[in-house]
Amino acid sequence: MTEADLPVWREEIERHFTHEIRDHFAAEEAVVFPAARAVQTLESLVNELSAEHVALREDFERARAGTMNIEQIRDFAQRLAEHIRKEERQLFEGMQAQLSSAEMEYVGRQLAEALASVEDSCLVPKDRTRLRPKAGN
User: Fold this and answer.
1) What does the pLDDT profile of the chain (137 residues) look like in tens digits?
2) Contact between 99 and 40 (Cβ < 8 Å)
3) Is residue 115 within 8 Å of 23, Cβ to Cβ?
4) Is 1 helix (H, G, I), strand (E, B) or coil?
5) Domain-wise residue ranges, the chain
6) Residue 132, SS3?
């Protein structure tokens, strides 16, 4: 990524937030987080993930406003990836271990309802933002 690529990266970040992440964050906050908070051992994790949502939204806004430099975009991408892994590996696994099958099915139905109006797509990166292996790898 170079300085010349920054506008394209910023646009890509905004596009992903608008079409995918914004609604997923809202659904998690409305459905998943309250269910997980009912499990005492997951409460601090949910608080941490909620705080990360706030910080990531601020990052998305900074990208949209064009105020992020290359290093900040790289840091943001790393934080977003770590956040997603934390949800998958800690929150969702913890919920599956602590909630009954019926409770998990209920959460799943609520989540499906919350996301029913969301466009069912996976955005493909633009050519300039597509990650490629480094030469020699």
Assistant:
1) 666 677 777 788 888 888 788 899 999 999 999 999 999 999 999 999 999 999 999 998 988 888 888 888 889 889 999 999 999 999 999 999 999 999 999 999 999 998 888 765 454 445 555 444 555 55
2) no
3) yes
4) coil
5) 3-115
6) coil
